[in-house]
Amino acid sequence: MELGVLDMLQPPKNLKELTIHCYAGLKFSSWIRDPLFSNMVRVSLYNCTNCHLLPPVGQLPCLKELYISGMSAVEVVGPEFYGEGSLPFRVLEILKLSDMKHWEKWLPFDQDMESGVFPGLKFLSIQMCPKPGGKLPKKLNSLTTLEIVRCEELVVAIANHEQVRELKIDGCKAPVHSTTEVDLKLLETLCLSNILELRLQAGGFTKGLGKIKELTILSCQELTSSLKNEDRCFPHLISLVRLVVGDNSALVEDLGKELEGLLKVPILACKLEYLEINKCERLSKLPKGLHQLSSLQELHIWQCSRLVSFPDVGLPPSLRVLKITECDSLVYVSKYQIPRNLKKIHISWCGSLKSLVEEEELVGSSSSSFSLSLEHLEISVCPSLTSLSLRGQLYTALKHLEIFTSDQLELIAPDGFFRDNAL
Length: 423
Description:
Number of helices: 4
Largest sheet: 16 strands, parallel
Shape: elongated
Structural class: mainly beta
Helix content: under 10%
């Protein structure tokens, strides 16, 4: 009955966008494949759970966006998808496939010779499709963004996508870097997370990341062991601006040792402005090499339960924002001084925190004191906090002070520390 209804709902030929949601028929109407729909630009198929085959939308001449989700009965994507005729998907730019629980095979286009299917595809996203084996289509020469999320059996050959600007691989079995020298000359954003296996030949991986600006590595233990075969990472990441490392204490320690080894050789080209470290449970102390990051503006640390203290050499002087959350073992932020140019501090849920600097009697006279640029100080749910004293540093620029659930706090600051401020 639903097929009959869909047949009678054939739209006018000038339709540009079509969405079919929760259709329960066993197959789609024949009018969907009709190339007479020459103006169709966008097609969305959602939760059509009884259809075993995708409609042959590949022959729609103006189709630029295709979204397919919840087609749980589909097992094979192949000829029926491409349609009969000339090269399919000639102008398609966006393709998103998601939540296809029984999809197992993606067959190539039989008549594909040299030009490749999807000649104009710019954005490809495949998510929550646990069974598709094999590899992605080759010759995606126009592809700029590739997202593969929770597709455990899909193998992604990194070397096949030299034109990609943004690459995200999450929860996949085996990304492959098969050549020693691949220049990912346009890649600016790379996110690797929950990688079960990583096949890298020795050397050459980080050397191809010279243009990368944003790098995220989450729960990739295999990546850590593979990078041991690489030469130093930081000298190659000359454009890196944002770095996030999560659930990988070993990688933070290795990068720290690398930075410490470069203490006598300044990283003049380092542009890193944002660093986030999260869920690194074995990390007890941040590396001294952190001070080498001379352009660092923001430092975010959360859920590092064994982190006790920051480096004795202090935080980078360029730091502007410091955010620390759920670090239960942290006792103090800095051994001696808070960076003078720091603008904002946010600390929450740190059960052992006693003070911002190591608790000692204030040293020196008021003449040796100097002003901080700190404007925003927020501390919440730190029950062991007793003092906000900063050992000779004055809160002269403070505008916002918020303290929440810090039961042991006795001293905010000695007389004179809030002198001439605009709180």
